[in-house]
Structure formats: C-alpha cells, structure tokens
C-alpha cells in the first residue's frame, strides 16, 4: 500500500535523492557494523505515518505493533540463546513525509541504536529510509509497502535490509481480474484508478494485463478529488458489468457514494487501500453493497487459523474493535522480527537480517509466510465483500 502526499511530478529518483541528501545531513556517524544489543531489552524502532495523509493506516499499524510487543513481553520476552529479553519500542512519527522518514530512520539507527525497524506503511516513506538503514546495517520490515520495486535496487538486485509483510501490487491486480472474470462473471469493465502514486497506477496496470474481458473505459483521479460525477456518468452509458477502482478509502468511499447516487449498482472492486471501516462511513452504509477488495487478512477466512483467532480476540479485548487488516500486517511484522532473532540466537541487526531472509512457513495472522529471494512474502490472499457497510462474505483465493 502506497500513499503519497506529494504530486506525481516528484519522480522516484528525486525522492531517493532527497532522502539521501537529508540522510547525509542527519547522520553524523555512519554505522557499518550493525547494532548489537547486549542488555536485557531489545530496542525495535517504529518509523510510522502517525499524522499526515496516511495517518489512518499508520495508527492502525501502531496498534498491531503495540499488541504484539505487549504479548511477547508478557510471555517473558524474546529468547536470545536461552535468555529472555523484553522488547522496548521506540515509536516515531514520519508525518507521511519522505524527508521526515529519512530523519526518523537516522535517529532510530544511529541515536537509539535499534536492532530492527517496523515500517513505514507507505512505499515512498519506506524508500526514503533505505539509505540510512543500509548504512547502519539495520533491517526494516514494512507491513504494507506494496510497490513491486520496493525491495529491489535499480540494478535489479535485492535491497539487503528491506523486507515486507505484504504482497505486491501486481499480485493484487491480477487476483482482482481473475475474481471479476471467474466469480463475478464480468465481461465489460471500467477502470477508475488513483494516479497520485504508483499504488493506483501499478494496480490498474496489473489488472488490465490479467483481465480477460473488455475494458470499455479507463479513467483516473487524484488524491484529494471530491467530485467524480462526470466520469461515473460516462461509465453508466457504457453498459458496464463492474468497475475496478484501485485506490484508498478516502477517495473510493466518495466514488462509491456518488456511483450509487447516479444509479450505478454494479459491483465495485478495489484493493487493500479500501480495507478500513472508514470506507463505509464515507460511502454510507446503504451505498456500500456489492463492494469487493483484495486483502491479506480477512476475519472470516482467518477463523480457521488458530493464530489469527488468538490475535483477533486479543485485539478486541485491548482496543474494543474488530482487528483491521493493517493492524494484522504490523502484528505479523513484529513476530517476524522475533522469529529472526530467535532463529539466529542473536540481537545483532546483521544477524537479524539473515534471520528474516530465512523465514519459511512462518505461522502468521495473515497466513503462512515464506520470505523469498527478493525479500517478499509468499502468502495467501483473500477478497472481502461488503453489504450495507459490513463484511458479509470472504473469498479465499488460491
């Protein structure tokens, strides 16, 4: 999941350059041997979007992170070669800003000496921290950075200290296309994608590549847009069977509302950026029916997974709400770091990195996870259906 608060004219190269320059200003000392923690605690940094455009996702992830750390500490901590060490979270707000994310990463690895980082939530903020974590040899696990190139260098090689707990955009887009064809039996589809970032455009590209029917129209919108009536009216005249809308709940909620107000009652299918209760709040419960989105975590599918059931019960007890997707992904991210530490029997950041790269058949809340050679997880995917604003059905996609 990638949410940008910058205009699209800011290129990927510029983002990385900005991060690198900012990093140079903020890192008086460059770590080269990693951070090894020998005390009674293990410091894990959190570089997260707690304010700004992606704050909804970041705060949801923060709750999952805190729940995981609380559980681990209550059980005595992380087992490091026979000795239990408790987690100390160091949480910082990157404000959904690339420059702030770079600064936060520098503080966490050089001043706080963390052994690993969870976050950021978005690809842009995550990309901005890469120069600093690489120099310091400290791994980072993003719960939700989905851009296919996030874990790769420009030369195609893997970013050595970058990992994620979520699948890539091309997997989501392709899954949505197959679902529309095989389950919804849609033959004529319109695409309405968020062009503010590579998240929406990447998903749209993957969907178009995989969809076997006819794409009768393809339009785009931008972050912050409010009025979608003109495009929706044009869709209505083209006898569509469904609409694919890869984007975030802030805009997609309004698109759903305006589509229904325009008499467009066909299924609307989207991506994990819709997996938030605020979607139905914006759209209105009565409008949020025949709504579908790809997600790495579904309450309904998860009921058959004892690890997920335990998480859902613990989350509800702590936060008095149902566990959202992004909390589940962040929760898994913390436990992935714990698994890496225990498998390597070390709280040294370089060894933790090796442990993360070796994860196989990890029993996660979001499914069984194996980290592949590109530091991406191989894991299951689901699609949730909303009816009157509530999840009414789930599809486990093989």
From TrEMBL:
Keywords: Receptor, Signal. Residues 41-389 form the Leucine-binding protein domain. InterPro entries: BCAA_transport (IPR051010), Leu-bd (IPR028081), Peripla_BP_I (IPR028082). Coiled coil: none annotated. Pfam families: Peripla_BP_6. It comes from the Bacteria. PROSITE patterns: PROKAR_LIPOPROTEIN (PS51257). Residues 1-28 form the signal peptide. Belongs to the leucine-binding protein family. This is Receptor family ligand-binding protein. The gene is livA.
